[in-house]
Amino acid sequence: MSRPPRRRAASPATDRRVLDEASGARAMTWVMAIMLFLTLLAGAAGLATADARALLARQLSGRLTVQVSGGDRAATASAAARALAVLRASPDVARARPVDPAELARLLRPWLGADAADPGLPVPAMIDVDLASDDPAVAARATATVLAAVPTARVDRHAAWMSPVVQVMTTAVWLAATLVLLMAAATAAVVMLAARAGLETHRATIEVMHMLGSTDTQVARLFQRRLALDAVVGGAVGSLAAAAVLLLVGRQIAALGSDLLAGIALVPHDWIALAALPLVFVVLAMLAARFAVTAALRRTL
């Protein structure tokens, strides 16, 4: 009684012989590189925007600005002193600090020029307030306290007038997350198309392998291994290119010395998340290739 032929595990050399598609492999490698490059840039933009939004929310939550104006500087100074006294006495206020008039003049100089330092200019007195809590009820009580002492005062909540900016940043974060998901879906679709194209190209070879005893799972593993190699090489190229671009942009932002743009810089946990994306794409490519080939083999062979 003759023994059935022994099935041997496919080696990398077997992969190259069975799936010898040099030009197709190169194209797939570059497609993976481009897709991962764009995905990393979109992910970095979303993470940096999320960090900047969180930093802005922390800086603005629980902060007020009290603006006191009067008929002349003496009346304004007196009203500002009353407002400052009641704020410092309030348990809802952690800190109240009057803004230096010289600092106000410096801020107005781009619009008023030398007239910003004119003693006759009716510049309102400003008080920066840090509340004991970011609870809206605490802000409401502090506002009522100031208005009771100085009815002509104006109280501005930082979080209120910056909320449109925060909303725009939130939209940008969701847009970046959507782009990352779309890139992942497009990558899976490209891998599935490449696997099916390779299956059609090697249909005769696969039929012979089936007659020799190879299973659909073993054939799918050949395609999976080959496309995973393309994904690894392409992912490495795309990741290095994206890292170079992000480091260049980060250095340019740091060189500007802007407090507003400083919050856009990536932090260590952002880099860890970005470093995980190439691994996710390799696993995605392997699963997509296996699914596409297995499904096609069940239907046609």
Helices and strands, in N-to-C order? HHEHEHEHEHHHHHH
From the spread of the alpha carbons, the general shape counts as: elongated
State the assembly state of the protein chains. single chain
Low-confidence parts, pLDDT < 50 over ≥5 residues? Answer: 1-23
Per DSSP E runs of 2 or more residues, the count of β-strands stands at: 4
Average pLDDT rating: 77
Total domain count: 2
Distinct helical segment count: 11
Q: Strand portion, in percent?
A: 5-15%
Reconstruct the topology from this structure.
Blueprint: H1 12-18, H2 22-60, E1 63-68, H3 73-89, E2 93-98, H4 101-112, E3 125-131, H5 136-149, E4 154-157, H6 158-161, H7 163-201, H8 203-211, H9 216-256, H10 259-262, H11 268-300
Antiparallel strand pairs: 1-3, 1-4, 2-3
Helix pairs in contact: 2-7, 2-9, 2-11, 3-5, 7-11, 9-11
Summarize this, please?
The chain is of the alpha+beta class and 301 residues long. 73% of the residues lie in helices and 8% in strands. It has two domains: 12-57 and 164-300, no CATH class; 70-151, no CATH class.
Write up what this structure looks like.
The protein has two domains: 12-57 and 164-300, no CATH class; 70-151, no CATH class. 73% of the residues lie in helices and 8% in strands. The chain has eleven helices and four strands; from the N terminus they run ααβαβαβαβαααααα. The chain has a four-stranded antiparallel sheet. α2 crosses α9 (216-256), α3 crosses α5 and α7 (163-201) runs parallel beside α11. The model is unreliable at 1-23 (pLDDT under 50).
